[in-house]
Amino acid sequence: MAKLTPDELEKISKSNHEKSSNWIKVGMSTCGIAAGAGEIFDFLLEEVKKRNLQIEVKKCGCQGNCYAEPLVEVSVEGLPAVTYGKVNKEVATKIIEKHVIAKMLVNDYIYDSLT
Amino acid sequence: MYEKTVLIKDTDLRREDKTRQAYTQFLDHLRQNDQHSRIQVVRVADVGLYDKGLVIKVLPDRITYANVQDRDLERIANSLCENKEAIKDLVYKPKVKQEKLALRNCGKIDPENINEYIACGGYLGLKRAIFELGAEKVIEEVKTGAIRGRGGAGYPTWLKWNFACKVSSEQKFVICNADEGDPGAYMDRSILEGDPHSVLEGLIVAAFAVGASRAYFYVRAEYPLAVERIEKAIKAAYDYGLLGKNILGSSFCLDAEIRLGAGAFVCGEETALISSIEGRRGTPHPRPPYPSIKGLWGKPTVINNVETLANIPQLISKGGKWFAQIGTETSKGTKVFAVTGKVKNSGLVEIAMGATLREIVVDLCGGTLSGGPIKAIQTGGPSGGVIPQELLDTPVDYENLQKLGSIMGSGGMIVMDEDDCMVDIPKFYLGFCVDESCGKCAPCRIGGFQMLNYLKKITEGRGELNDLIHLKRISYAMQKASLCGLGQTASNPVLSTLKYFENEYIEHIVNKRCPAGKCNHLITYKVIEDKCKRCGLCSTNCPVNAISGDKEKGYSIIQEKCIKCGRCFEVCKFKAIYKK
Ligand SMILES: Cc1cc2nc3c(=O)[nH]c(=O)nc-3n(C[C@H](O)[C@H](O)[C@H](O)COP(=O)(O)O)c2cc1C
Ligand code: SF4
Ligand code: SF4
């Protein structure tokens, strides 16, 4: 990779770190992984591939709500970005089928305490 | 596609959960007005408010209604259906909000992707430092921002940097202290795992300011994921020319590497940490000379905590003035707390200095797990103390906590309720310090051991009132004469519990009773004959066969055999076991 000049640095800083507004972020710090985030990450990745969905599944750090890990934040065009907590495979399936495909938020698992 | 989203949650735990009912009502109302395809309603697990009745939040406007009554539900639904403004008299304005500086990117960006960090303004602080400010003005900015060390002592960061900057030496070092050994604290781990570049950038700026050519991350080996992410961050920074020779094309050069700590608590102390990096035994040394004058291999060395460094990039890119607006007169910026113990929502909270303990623990974390009262809050880990419930409205900053006999420390906050014993808690912390004492100086080595013996004696029912005087005397001696912070502060948990909960000590000593029911030696389990239904559950569950009897005769506990494990108390469905 080439060394950056100050101008090139400035240029990257003006880019948008979210390439599109369709993404799923899984909290993958120690607390998340201990609660099973690794499995959920793999599961979501696989489902997205299997169903050929246009959404990126990404890793991120811990948002702080360790009591509700694994945390999965979902942004889909046309819906507010929300964070689901205590996500297991069942909830992850709902996220894919209801939130990502049917474009409706999933009841009972949203943690809106992060703002 | 929905124009609006309505989040619903009943936050009153004392009644039957009304979330579903309100949800249905709201949805029906939308349907009647044919608005359900324009507005969606969702039941949520947590709305960020606690004990505020039925809460309704409208997105994207972020209007919050709390303590919503049945009749208001319709008003709110109507206002949405008709696209009217928020109903002012029902709107709830939250008292406290988190303010994320150190955790600004945690959970937002991919920690292993340097481009995402840069796209969030990363490394612009470094750029400003090198090309606009120069070393002296960087220190000026940090002075204006008035940030103080987040690693425990709260020493002004600019002063340290200034000392090291002023000393002339052919080599200087900067070290990031990521040893984080306090039981219950994990803010530093979370920052390193969630946003390693922010800490790295802070460290590079520090090196630039003092003129260091080498930087170290001292990380405890128990943090493998943090180590992995720092490694990746360092590599990416080298690739981009943000580390190595001629950083960003300037004349500034810096190399960085990781050193692993083997997990001794005392190695977090700066002089012990330096010894450990040098490959010697990790024991503290007398100061002065301070590391900023004579540190690693005898060279000027700046040591800063992870959270301190994570704040630096923004302080530099946005300026010291901006930073100094946040917080209180003497303590600027924010602090990250790891809230654990008997709390409903354990986790990390970052809040501007000056927020009260009650706001942190009750408003943001939802109060106790059981919904019952808080007895006290422990801050500062083994070097800190307890703050009783009646002082929870104290604004948190370095000075205030110290006045109360505790310390800010690194930011651990443990919530305690009626089941926590105020003699057992300090015994735990003191035990930790005795285990972790390096043994180099007598006050800490011997004093800690003696104090622990007195506490053991008291919790085992052999205490005498005189012991309290001994405890205090040894405490003062340790504070005055110990070589390092570990010994100097190890007695804080004891002194602060003695200050606020002396009665509880006296109860243990005089009445041989533990009010919280924690100290095994002071509790007895008995079968209450009137309540016992003779089911025999306790007897089958007792691990040492200490419950004799049968379904005919009834049951009783043989006190000599009982190891006070509490199994019988837990399993009895008829509350027929008495514990006192
Ligand atoms: C026993 C003991 C343990 C310590 N552990 C840590 C630690 O784990 N992390 C840390 O940053 N500072 C720790 N400190 C404080 C450091 O000595 C030092 O003050 C701090 O790293 C300076 O950074 P700051 O000015 O950014 O807070 C400890 C101090 C003592 C006495
Ligand atoms: S105070 Fe304790 S830990 Fe510190 S140098 Fe003395 S014996 Fe070692
Ligand atoms: S407290 Fe434990 S040991 Fe004692 S009687 Fe009950 S079950 Fe047995």
Furnish the topology, listing elements before pairings:
The complex is a heterodimer of chains A (115) and B (580).
Chain A: H1 6-14, E1 23-27, H2 30-34, H3 37-50, E2 56-60, E3 72-75, E4 82-84, H4 89-101
Parallel strand pairs in A: 1-2
Antiparallel strand pairs in A: 1-3, 3-4
Helix pairs in contact in A: 3-4
Chain B: E1 4-10, H1 19-32, E2 39-43, E3 54-59, E4 63-65, H2 70-81, H3 114-119, H4 124-145, H5 157-166, E5 173-178, H6 187-194, H7 196-210, E6 214-220, H8 224-239, E7 255-261, H9 270-277, E8 301-305, H10 306-318, H11 320-324, E9 334-341, E10 347-352, H12 357-364, E11 376-379, E12 385-388, H13 398-403, E13 412-416, H14 424-436, H15 442-459, H16 466-481, H17 485-489, H18 492-510, E14 525-527, H19 537-541, E15 547-550, E16 554-557, H20 567-571, E17 577-579
Parallel strand pairs in B: 1-2, 5-6, 5-8, 6-7, 9-13
Antiparallel strand pairs in B: 1-3, 3-4, 9-10, 11-12, 11-13, 14-17, 15-16
Helix pairs in contact in B: 1-2, 4-5, 4-7, 4-10, 6-7, 6-8, 7-10, 14-15, 14-18, 15-16, 16-18
The structure holds flavin mononucleotide and iron/sulfur cluster (SF4) (2 copies).
Flavin mononucleotide is lined by residues 149-153, 155, 177, 179-181, 265-266, 268-270, 303-305, 308, 410, 484-486 of chain B.
Question: Could you describe the 3D structure shown?
Answer:
The complex is a heterodimer of chains A (115) and B (580). With 115 residues, chain A is α+β, with helices and mostly antiparallel strands. Chain A has a single domain (21-113), classed as Glutaredoxin, CATH 3.40.30.10. Chain A has 4 helices and 4 strands. Chain A has helices at 6-14, 30-34, 37-50, 89-101, and strands at 23-27, 56-60, 72-75, 82-84. In chain A, strand 3 and strand 4 (82-84) form a beta hairpin. In chain A, helix 3 packs across helix 4 (89-101). The longest helix of chain A is centred in the middle third of the chain and has 14 residues, at 37-50. Chain B is flat and about 90 Å long. In chain B, strand 9 (334-341) and strand 10 (347-352) form a beta hairpin. Chain B has a 5-stranded mixed sheet. Chain B is of the alpha/beta class. In chain B, helix 4 packs across helix 5 (157-166). Helices cover 39% and strands 15% of the residues of chain B. The mean pLDDT of chain B is 93. Chain B has 5 domains: 4-81, Glutaredoxin, CATH 3.40.30.10; 114-324, NADH-ubiquinone oxidoreductase 51kDa subunit (Rossmann fold, 3-Layer(aba) Sandwich), CATH 3.40.50.11540; 334-416, Ubiquitin-like (UB roll) (Roll), CATH 3.10.20; 424-510, NADH-ubiquinone oxidoreductase 51kDa subunit, iron-sulphur binding domain (de novo design (two linked rop proteins)); 524-579, Alpha-Beta Plaits. At the A-B interface, helix 1, helix 2 and strand 2 of A face strand 2, helix 3, helix 4, helix 6 and helix 8 of B. The structure holds flavin mononucleotide (FMN) and iron/sulfur cluster (SF4) (2 copies). Residues 266, 284, 437-441, 444-445, 482-484, 486-487 of chain B line the site of one iron/sulfur cluster.
